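Design job #97: recover the sequence.
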Protein backbone atom coordinates (compact mmCIF):
# COMPACT_ATOMS: atom_id res chain seq x y z
CA UNK A 1 0.00 0.00 0.00
CA UNK A 2 1.14 3.51 -0.80
CA UNK A 3 -0.12 6.46 1.24
CA UNK A 4 0.76 10.11 0.77
CA UNK A 5 -1.54 12.17 3.01
CA UNK A 6 -3.70 14.57 1.02
CA UNK A 7 -2.47 13.15 -2.29
CA UNK A 8 -2.42 9.44 -3.01
CA UNK A 9 -3.60 6.02 -1.87
CA UNK A 10 -2.36 3.03 -3.81
CA UNK A 11 -2.67 -0.72 -3.49
CA UNK A 12 -0.95 -3.49 -5.40
CA UNK A 13 -2.42 -6.98 -5.53
CA UNK A 14 -0.01 -9.58 -6.84
CA UNK A 15 -1.63 -12.82 -7.88
CA UNK A 16 0.13 -15.72 -9.57
CA UNK A 17 -0.98 -14.89 -13.14
CA UNK A 18 -1.44 -11.12 -12.82
CA UNK A 19 -0.90 -7.86 -10.95
CA UNK A 20 -3.66 -5.33 -10.20
CA UNK A 21 -2.77 -1.80 -9.07
CA UNK A 22 -5.38 0.68 -7.85
CA UNK A 23 -4.37 4.29 -7.31
CA UNK A 24 -6.59 7.03 -5.93
CA UNK A 25 -5.22 10.54 -6.25
CA UNK A 26 -6.69 13.53 -4.44
CA UNK A 27 -5.97 17.12 -5.42
CA UNK A 28 -7.36 20.53 -4.59
CA UNK A 29 -9.80 21.88 -7.14
CA UNK A 30 -10.15 25.59 -7.96
CA UNK A 31 -13.59 25.72 -6.29
CA UNK A 32 -12.07 24.54 -2.97
CA UNK A 33 -13.41 21.01 -3.41
CA UNK A 34 -11.31 17.91 -4.00
CA UNK A 35 -10.68 16.32 -7.39
CA UNK A 36 -10.45 12.53 -7.27
CA UNK A 37 -8.77 10.40 -9.94
CA UNK A 38 -8.96 6.61 -9.79
CA UNK A 39 -6.64 4.51 -11.91
CA UNK A 40 -6.83 0.73 -12.18
CA UNK A 41 -4.15 -1.17 -14.05
CA UNK A 42 -3.94 -4.86 -14.87
CA UNK A 43 -0.75 -6.60 -15.90
CA UNK A 44 -0.96 -10.25 -16.94
CA UNK A 45 2.18 -12.14 -15.96
CA UNK A 46 1.64 -15.24 -18.06
CA UNK A 47 -0.19 -16.48 -21.12
CA UNK A 48 0.02 -15.50 -24.72
CA UNK A 49 -1.96 -13.10 -26.85
CA UNK A 50 -4.75 -15.61 -27.59
CA UNK A 51 -5.29 -16.31 -23.89
CA UNK A 52 -5.36 -12.59 -23.10
CA UNK A 53 -7.93 -11.95 -25.83
CA UNK A 54 -10.17 -14.74 -24.52
CA UNK A 55 -10.00 -13.26 -21.01
CA UNK A 56 -10.57 -9.65 -22.08
CA UNK A 57 -14.31 -9.56 -21.21
CA UNK A 58 -13.69 -11.13 -17.81
CA UNK A 59 -10.87 -8.71 -17.05
CA UNK A 60 -13.03 -5.77 -18.13
CA UNK A 61 -15.87 -6.94 -15.84
CA UNK A 62 -13.48 -7.32 -12.90
CA UNK A 63 -12.08 -3.86 -13.61
CA UNK A 64 -15.55 -2.29 -13.74
CA UNK A 65 -16.55 -4.00 -10.48
CA UNK A 66 -13.32 -2.88 -8.84
CA UNK A 67 -13.79 0.72 -9.94
CA UNK A 68 -17.38 0.70 -8.67
CA UNK A 69 -16.14 -0.66 -5.35
CA UNK A 70 -13.40 1.98 -5.11
CA UNK A 71 -15.86 4.75 -5.94
CA UNK A 72 -17.90 3.58 -2.99
CA UNK A 73 -14.85 4.14 -0.77
CA UNK A 74 -13.94 7.62 -2.00
CA UNK A 75 -15.73 9.45 0.80
CA UNK A 76 -13.82 7.42 3.41
CA UNK A 77 -10.50 8.09 1.66
CA UNK A 78 -11.26 11.81 1.63
CA UNK A 79 -12.08 11.72 5.36
CA UNK A 80 -8.77 9.93 6.01
CA UNK A 81 -6.89 12.54 4.01
CA UNK A 82 -8.63 15.36 5.86
CA UNK A 83 -7.87 13.76 9.25
CA UNK A 84 -4.22 13.26 8.32
CA UNK A 85 -4.02 16.88 7.21
CA UNK A 86 -5.50 18.10 10.51
CA UNK A 87 -3.07 15.87 12.46
CA UNK A 88 -0.11 17.35 10.60
CA UNK A 89 -1.24 20.90 11.34
CA UNK A 90 -1.78 20.18 15.06
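Job complete. Output follows.
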Amino acid sequence: MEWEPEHRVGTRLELTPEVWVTTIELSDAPDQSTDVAITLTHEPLSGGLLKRRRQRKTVRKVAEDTIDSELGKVADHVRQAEAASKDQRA
